[in-house]
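We examine the record.
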Amino acid sequence: MALSSEHFGAILGRTVKVTLKCGVFQGVLQHVNPDRSLLLRTVKNLETGRSTPGVKMFFGREIVNVELLDEPDSGRGTAVLSECTSAVEGNKQADTGPADCGPWSSPCVSLESQLRASNSLKYSLSEKKEEENVEYTVVDCFQQKFGPAVLHLKQQCVVSIAGEGVNLCRHGKLSWLEIATKSRIFLFDIFLLGPHAFKNGLQMVLEDKNILKVMHDCRWISDCLFHQYGVLLFNVFDTQVADALQFSMATGGFFPHRVCTLQECLMQHLKIPSKWDAIMKCRQQMASENPDIWFLRPFPASLLKALALKAMYLLLLHSSLMDNLMSDLTAVVHDYLNAYRTGSGDHFGSTKPTCMELPEELRQLADLQKLRREKAIKDYRMNEDGLLIRPAMELKERNDPQKDGNYRDDGDCFPTNKAVSQITSFYNQDVLCQEKLENQNQVVNLWKNLKLTSSWLYESNF
């Protein structure tokens, strides 16, 4: 029950003692939010004796007890305060177990930082409204949403996973874990759920060898999950690694001098709209300027939608990269299928079915790799390590490639797919299947064109 303004008047400005699950603090009460979180100013840590300037927020789930230190003129203040503490007790009973003091605990976040981050987000998104409609489920409690979410994830074959927090590694803090399937998107609030989120089912999903996890640069979150929560990731498809391998395949065996960010991969392989690109940049800028943004509670709905879109696009990125990585195989198999059935059949008597010589269809692949290497040498500069210099991808540079001396014609090096912006719904599987078929047709046409070019080279040499 939210406290009325009349009740506020009885306790606002009073000095209170707040006992958390991992500390005791003292300060002057400024505000009590409807979710029972408290705002205090002139905060002092009673265990260390250290004072903190400014206004701090204490989340209701972290609060064990609240006491008035200066006696009120009447019993009104104590009565009102008991309403807060009774709600806190209810939160304690709702937890599945005691929360240990660890990296996931962040008892107070600067109100000034919260307001600055929230206002920055609203301002940035006001001029760049998102066109995508995406549904997601925020899992921040164990009673209603957590169990069904984990049960749904256990039934999947492929999921995408992304994490948000501060300095994601064994020494950092994980705040959000986004997991998307082909039909659902879950945003797990690890900051509120704590390590019990993994003990109660997420660890089983993340360690399941039968579930493919699509991630981008899994190194940091893998370190965080293992050292903080004892989670050992299995069966991971890393889109950053896949993008580097696809670059190598498209350039005839060369590797780039650097890897791509998730934003660059989405621009390259999914042709994401410029509005979503701007949102990604805004999110990254705010996170770098104010790391505490991930611990805002309640979390801004606009930023929740950005997290959901990130998980959704990550799953689509896996499909696009797989199509590109399998393009040569698809093209060669297509020629295999037509190798005999479209011919006259006169030579069948002289051809042994058990002949193991390398077929002409596979020999053409070597010619294709040679052409790709020659084109890559023309289109890219090479550093002293023999790696191709891959410039950062920007929307304006893609429209005018001549502005960058290291980049000339990236569009011809990489097979293009239809813009994912044409996908009207994340859950429309018919559109995805149709796009895969069109991608395969594009690969076959590319193979045929290069095959004709290769034949011309042979004829000119002889």
About this structure: The longest strand covers residues 23-32. The CA atoms of residues 106 and 345 lie 75 Å apart. The mean pLDDT is 74. The longest helix spans residues 429-461.
